[in-house]
Amino acid sequence: MVENFGDAPFFADDVPKVSIAAMALAVAEVASVGLPTGVNVLRNDALGALAVAAATETSFIRVNVLSGMMYTDQGPIIGQAAHIARTRHELCPATAIIADVFVKHATPPAGLSLVDATNDLVERAGADAVVVSGAGTGSPTDLSDLRSVAQHSHLPVYVGSGATAETIAEILSIGDGAIVGSATKIDGIATNPVDPERAVAIVRAASL
User: Fold this and answer.
1) Cβ proximity of 70 and 34 under 8 Å
2) 3-state class of 111 per DSSP?
3) Are residues 158 and 176 in contact, defined by beta-carbon separation less than 8 angstroms?
4) Is 67 helix (H, G, I), strand (E, B) or coil?
5) Cis peptide leading into 16, omega within 30 of 0?
6) Cα gap 54→30, rounded to integer Å
7) What contacts 24+ positions apart, CB below 8 Å, involve 188-197?
8) Which end of the chain has fewer beta carbons closer than 10 Å to its terminal beta carbon, N or C?
9) Phi, psi angles (nearest 5°) of residue 65
10) What is the SS3 assignment for 199?
11) CB–CB of 19/7 below 8 Å?
12) Cα gap 93→84, rounded to integer Å
């Protein structure tokens, strides 16, 4: 999955058009090796991600806030599930939507439970898979949260943060997969280059 992680601080839901153009070039280059490729336009420009997907035949997009609302450091972000569903149908109907529930670096509205948010995401928002994360980038995902979401979702459920070589096996015993970034980097720091040995260790641990 390709993200514009270096663009921080992020725009909430409408990134500059030059960023969309740059993402399209980057995704096309990555996809040229023949692997299934996804895109997440941070912070939450799902329509921009769909534009990239349509131009590059991307396999999936990730949407941090697809339904409901979350309080973030970019301010309140409101999901645009209806608009996203219709745009996908028009531009790239084969592109899957992987959506976060209680996305990291965000706070849910008072009174909204994880189970209720999961039900809304799964039953009403048009998601094809669900992501469960910890509090922030690289933060461990609470396995009780993962179990709760998995129990209330008929869709695939992925961990979105904190997976390591030591935890990946247990994660995969509950969920269907994991998005791994920080743990593959030198010293486990998200902004560092990839450490091939750390990446291989995670893949090997996941294969056991």
Assistant:
1) no
2) coil
3) yes
4) coil
5) no
6) 15
7) 188/138, 188/164, 190/5, 190/137, 190/138, 191/5
8) C
9) -130, 95
10) helix
11) yes
12) 11
Is residue 87 predicted with pLDDT exceeding 90?
yes
- The pLDDT of 52-72, averaged and rounded, is 97
Helix, coil or strand: residue 55: helix
Helix (H) or strand (E) holding 12: none
Distance CA 2, CA 73 (A): 22
The single-letter DSSP state of residue 94 is T
Q: Going along 59-183, which residue ranges are E strands?
A: 60-63, 69-72, 75-78, 96-101, 106-107, 129-132, 157-159, 177-178
* Rounded Cα–Cα distance for residues 50 and 63 (Å): 10
Is residue 15 within 8 Å of 7, Cβ to Cβ? yes
Residue 194 DSSP code: B
Q: Where are the beta strands (DSSP E) in the chain?
A: 2-3, 38-40, 60-63, 69-72, 75-78, 96-101, 106-107, 129-132, 157-159, 177-178
Instruction: Determine the pLDDT at residue 208.
Output: 79
Q: What is the mean pLDDT of the chain?
A: 96
List 78's β-bridge partners, or say none.
69
